[in-house]
Amino acid sequence: MRQQNLMRVIQAPIVSEKSNITAQSNRTFVFRVKKNSDKIDIKQAVELMFDVKVESVHVLNVFGKSKRFGRFAGKRSDWKKAYVKLKPGFDIELSTA
């Protein structure tokens, strides 16, 4: 049961110019994760899913923007981002994962 919960922690990798630069230079990968997950859960989920060793995890809460749709006001959802740094010798190939 624990492995099933860990498989749901990581929602998607974030592929952008900034995340590609950090992945190449620092072995740091960026993931969108569940809002209620903590650093230990994220570390265990990455190690389980990608078969790598994690050195550190940094977590960032991204707050949704307030938007207007004509005369209606709305708000985008809040979400959580995780920067996962791998130990030397390990790598994640996101294009094949």
From TrEMBL:
Q: Which GO terms describe its molecular function?
A: rRNA binding; structural constituent of ribosome
- Entry's Gene Ontology cellular component terms: ribonucleoprotein complex; ribosome
One short Pfam name that applies is Ribosomal_L23
Q: Which SUPFAM superfamilies does the UniProt entry name for this protein? A: Ribosomal proteins S24e, L23 and L15e
Q: Which domain of life is it from?
A: Bacteria
Give a yes or no for keyword Aminoacyl-tRNA synthetase in this entry.
no
InterPro entries of this UniProt entry? Nucleotide-bd_a/b_plait_sf, Ribosomal_uL23-like, Ribosomal_uL23/eL15/eS24_sf
What are its GO biological-process terms? translation
Q: Keywords in UniProt for this one? A: Ribonucleoprotein, Ribosomal protein, RNA-binding, rRNA-binding
**Record flagged with keyword rRNA-binding:** yes
User: What PANTHER family does this protein's entry cite?
Assistant: 60S RIBOSOMAL PROTEIN L23A
Protein purpose: One of the early assembly proteins it binds 23S rRNA. One of the proteins that surrounds the polypeptide exit tunnel on the outside of the ribosome. Forms the main docking site for trigger factor binding to the ribosome.
Question: Self-association or partners: how does it assemble?
Answer: Part of the 50S ribosomal subunit. Contacts protein L29, and trigger factor when it is bound to the ribosome.
- Which family, according to the similarity comment? Belongs to the universal ribosomal protein uL23 family.
What's the protein called, per UniProt? Large ribosomal subunit protein uL23
Q: What is the species listed in this Swiss-Prot or TrEMBL entry?
A: Candidatus Methylospira mobilis
